[in-house]
């Protein structure tokens, strides 16, 4: 069961390449990004250890059930509705960005709204399945796509086009003071642990988290590659010209393996799969948080029949995602995402401390 925890962590670590995290960090490469990465790794490691330790004391229970044991139901309902909005937005930003990417790199003549509707229909239907089914889809998606992503990252690091001098120049700015937006962006790569808020329901009694040292090591490795490799390819100044910097970085790689030459197409196809999986998982969690606000709701991890409420809630998510694309553009989306990352950091710290305190209280009561 430990692998299911790591799958969620790995999924978010990979998806940050498609989010605006690399672009945000690169914009501050001379003014605090490097030191912010160090602090982000430290904060992420602490949060991972605290949250896994706390959730291990509540096997089989999600965050809504844990909070309802010690807090008023009206307060928990407000908190769950707020978290549902946070989870919905986290995935909507990614799927909207990917719809724009498809329009830009695959088919410029296609309508971005039509592309997004096709994506959200697929994600929405999958999100209405049971929690256990969603976890199985996450597992299959990562088993298929993670090796390809790791291979692309390995090829990028080993590429002869990578300028280590450019990387060294930016790394020397480690003494620049960190900024809050960079710390929030850097710590996002560790945020997969927070999915335990729902998927902890799948963990059996007497479950123990193992190999937790892997999380900070893996997260730090992906974060450093995410930030430094584009700088090595595009230079210390040229790298700031791109919004979707990793798409252009993948396009800088060549492979001589049969029909695969331009890595960009392989990269985008793989991330299409991950975007669908990530959005499905996020919407499912948001849906369960909304349903937990209903007093009579009893959570089921593998319900035999899909409730009608699942389709209604996820349908609203899909509609709001399309409206978000219509009402925003890339500049506004970037600004909103930057603020959302900061809010997310403080919300996660609050949740982790809250649940950790409750776990200590429960241990003393026992």
Automatic annotation (TrEMBL):
GO terms for cellular component: membrane. GO terms for biological process: spore germination. The chain crosses the membrane at residues 6-26, 33-54, 74-101, 110-128, 134-157, 169-193, 213-233, 263-281, 308-327, 339-357. Coiled coil: none annotated. It comes from the Bacteria. Keywords: Membrane, Transmembrane, Transmembrane helix. It holds the Pfam family Spore_permease. InterPro entries: Spore_GerAB (IPR004761). This is GerAB/ArcD/ProY family transporter. It comes from Paenibacillus endophyticus. The lineage of its organism: Bacteria, Bacillati, Bacillota, Bacilli, Bacillales.
């Amino acid at each position: 069961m430990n692998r299911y925890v790591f799958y969620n962590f790995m999924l978010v670590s990979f998806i940050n390449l498609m989010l605006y995290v690399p672009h945000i960090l690169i914009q501050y490469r001379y003014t605090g990004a490097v030191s912010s990465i160090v602090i982000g790794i430290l904060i992420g490691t602490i949060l991972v250890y605290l949250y896994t330790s706390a959730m291990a004391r509540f096997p089989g229970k999600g965050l809504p059930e844990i909070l309802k044991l010690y807090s008023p139901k009206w307060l928990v309902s407000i908190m769950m509705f707020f978290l549902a909005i946070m989870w919905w937005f986290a995935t909507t930003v990614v799927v909207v960005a990917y719809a724009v990417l498809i329009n830009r790199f695959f088919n410029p003549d296609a309508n971005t709204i039509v592309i997004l509707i096709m994506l959200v229909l697929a994600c929405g239907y999958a999100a209405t399945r049971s929690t256990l089914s969603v976890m199985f889809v996450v597992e299959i998606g990562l088993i298929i796509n993670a090796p390809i992503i790791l291979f692309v990252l390995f090829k990028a690091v080993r590429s002869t086009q990578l300028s280590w001098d450019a990387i060294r120049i930016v790394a020397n700015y480690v003494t620049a003071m960190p900024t809050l937006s960079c710390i929030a962006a850097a710590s996002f790569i560790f945020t997969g642990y927070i999915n335990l808020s729902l998927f902890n329901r799948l963990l059996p009694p007497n479950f123990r988290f193992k190999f937790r040292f892997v999380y900070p090591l893996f997260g730090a490795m992906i974060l450093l590659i995410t930030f430094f490799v584009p700088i090595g390819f595009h230079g210390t100044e040229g790298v700031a010209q791109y919004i979707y910097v990793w798409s252009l970085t993948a396009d800088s790689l060549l492979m001589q393996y049969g029909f695969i030459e331009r890595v960009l197409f392989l990269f985008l196809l793989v991330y299409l799969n991950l975007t669908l999986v990530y959005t499905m998982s996020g919407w499912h969690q948001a849906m369960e948080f909304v349903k937990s606000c209903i007093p009579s709701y009893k959570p089921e991890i593998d319900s035999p029949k899909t409730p009608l409420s699942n389709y209604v809630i996820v349908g609203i998510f899909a509609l709001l995602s399309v409206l978000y694309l219509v009402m925003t553009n890339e500049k506004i989306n970037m600004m909103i995402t930057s603020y959302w990352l900061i809010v997310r950091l403080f919300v996660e710290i609050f949740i982790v401390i809250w649940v950790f305190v409750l776990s200590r209280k429960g241990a003393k009561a026992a």
